User: Fold this.
Amino acid sequence: GAVVSQHPSRVICKSGTSVKIECRSLDFQATTMFWYRQFPKKSLMLMATSNEGSKATYEQGVEKDKFLINHASLTLSTLTVTSAHPEDSSFYICSARDPSGRLYEQYFGPGTRLTVT
Amino acid sequence: AQRVTQPEKLLSVFKGAPVELKCNYSYSGSPELFWYVQYSRQRLQLLLRHISRESIKGFTADLNKGETSFHLKKPFAQEEDSAMYYCALMGASGYALNFGKGTSLLVTP
Assistant:
């Protein structure tokens, strides 16, 4: 089946620094990828939809200048958390849609645990 | 606005007992509804989709438009069913998913 990877799996950074998280589709080309954020004991919240070759579409309330998304190729999307604050600490999950597969199916990455100190 | 509600944070049942995980939704159009499962230390994966009307690992879910519900059921729970279950709605905005808060199912021997 389709596999999505994320790197790193966990990262610790200091306040004020930026951190980049990668999401890769390993065996398919993903024209659309999604970024979610999961708070402790809460649901996944959609942050943005990333389309290859175009600007990401951000959900209401998500700061696009803080959470920079780049989908430069059909197998890679990156999320950069800029000027990180402790409240940005969270679990970030990406998913990718395989346009050659079932229209509705998304494949999820394992997630990245971000801790901002 | 679209919303998915899973009223139970935790559901604990004995092995062999029936289980029902509740999911209610609000959506003005025709929703596409899904159940996703996350086993311990594993990634989120699709369990089933309402249109497929299939049974996966003994689980079924029926869309009830009158009650705006999509409850997940299994007649005889197994210990390996212990996991986090998320109900999700796919609206009109390009395949993005709106998740409920999840229900943690614990099946004890």
Q: What stands out?
A: The CA atoms of residues 35 and 87 of chain B lie 5 Å apart. Chain B has a mean pLDDT of 91.
